[in-house]
């Protein structure tokens, strides 16, 4: 290697950032394996969040909580270092959600009543560009809209179930209380309304009303994603419109001439 090449190689902190960019945003087999591993870890973290109402009374809960906090903090730090625009990344909703989740993990006692919001990590993961790069394959990317709609609905169900459990079923109810909260949420969202579990007082009625309104909207969104014609994701270089017809020649928003790759090639 020549002296000029050695001088061009980043060293120290710059080398660390360059390596993180390669594994977080690159297309090499190593980058693919790394992002696949982080996705598995994220799914395990989400499973921990779902099980938190049951685990929080166990003696090992704090150890697990702080271990997850360390993982979330490490991932957020690595993503910041891998970013070419840190201030912009820190303003993104997904990063703000992760920061809030980190606070609830670092202060599990003080923020115990907000712990149910940790499940928003599932929404954050579904919006991750790194996740969808794994699925940018033939026959899979067409399910992006439907998959995100399913994740949105699932996130809403779990967040509401956590809220109901925290404020209506928590006292000494354990796993059975969480199941009751989830059962009430699903029955309310689907407007089945069996009536065997009803939240008490005005607060309970308002909770049921909000759950039904938002839940029906998410069901409609899911139906639209499944049954409407498929579109491709290709940002228009001029106006930034993301979704286009598969055979589109011009952007329907600004008329810019598009060059959408053909998956059949």
Verbal overview:
The relative contact order is 0.07. This protein has helices spanning 3-8, 12-25, 29-55, 61-82, 86-91, 93-106, 120-126, 129-134, 144-169, 174-189, 201-227, and strands at residues 232-233, 243-244. Strands 1-2 form a two-stranded antiparallel sheet. The chain contains 11 helices and 2 strands; from the N terminus they run H-H-H-H-H-H-H-H-H-H-H-E-E. The radius of gyration is 22 Å and the shape is flat. The protein has 3 domains: 1-134, no CATH class; 136-230, Helix Hairpins (Orthogonal Bundle); 231-265. The chain is an all-alpha fold. This is Potassium channel family protein. It comes from Aquamicrobium soli. Its main location: membrane. Keywords: Ion channel, Ion transport, Membrane, Transmembrane, Transmembrane helix, Transport.
- Rg from Cα: 22 Å
Count the domains: 3
Low-confidence stretches: 1-7
Mean pLDDT, as a whole number?
78
Order of helices and strands: HHHHHHHHHHHEE
Strand order of the largest sheet: 1-2
Approximate helicity band:
55-70%
Number of strands: 2
Pairing-aware structural class of the strands and helices?
mainly alpha
Strand content: under 5%
Shape: flat
By DSSP (H or I, 4+ residues per run), the number of helices equals 11
Largest sheet: 2 strands, antiparallel
N- and C-termini, Cα separation: 39 Å
Please supply descriptive tags for the structure shown above.
265 residues; disordered N terminus; mainly alpha; 11 helices
In short:
The protein has 265 residues and is mostly helical.
């Amino acid at each position: 290697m020549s002296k000029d090449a050695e001088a061009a190689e980043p060293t120290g902190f710059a080398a660390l950032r360059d390596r993180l960019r390669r594994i977080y945003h690159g297309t090499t087999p190593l980058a693919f394996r790394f992002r696949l591993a982080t996705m598995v870890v994220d799914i395990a973290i989400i499973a921990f969040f779902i099980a938190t109402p049951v685990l929080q009374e166990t003696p090992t809960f704090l150890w697990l909580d702080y271990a997850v906090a360390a993982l979330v903090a490490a991932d957020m730090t690595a993503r910041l270092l891998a970013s070419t625009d840190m201030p912009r990344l820190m303003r993104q909703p997904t990063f703000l959600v992760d920061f809030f989740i980190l606070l609830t993990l670092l202060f599990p006692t003080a923020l115990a009543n907000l712990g149910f919001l940790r499940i928003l990590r599932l929404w954050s993961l579904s919006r991750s560009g790194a996740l969808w790069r794994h699925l940018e394959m033939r026959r899979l990317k067409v399910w992006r809209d439907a998959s995100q709609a399913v994740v949105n609905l699932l996130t809403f169900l779990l967040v509401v179930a956590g809220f109901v459990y925290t404020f209506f079923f928590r006292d000494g109810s354990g796993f059975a209380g969480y199941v009751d909260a989830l059962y009430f949420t699903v029955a309310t969202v689907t407007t089945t309304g069996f009536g065997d579990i009803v939240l008490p007082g005005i607060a309970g009625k308002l909770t049921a009303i909000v759950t039904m309104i938002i839940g029906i909207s998410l069901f409609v969104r899911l139906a639209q994603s499944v049954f409407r014609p498929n579109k491709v994701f290709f940002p228009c270089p001029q106006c930034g419109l993301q979704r286009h017809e598969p055979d589109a020649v011009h952007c329907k928003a600004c008329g810019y001439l598009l060059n959408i790759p053909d998956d059949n090639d």
